[in-house]
Amino acid sequence: MYAPEKAGKTSFACFAPNPIFLMTAGETGLLSLIEAGQVPPTAHFPDDFKTWGELQGAVRSLIKEQHDYKTLVLDTGNGAENLLAASVCEENFNGNWADYNDYGRGVRIAVPLWGKFLAALDVLRIDRRMSVIFLHHAAVKQTANPTGKDWDQHRPEAIDKMWGLTHK
Question: How far, in Å, CA of 100 to CA of 89, rounded?
Answer without folding.
Answer: 6
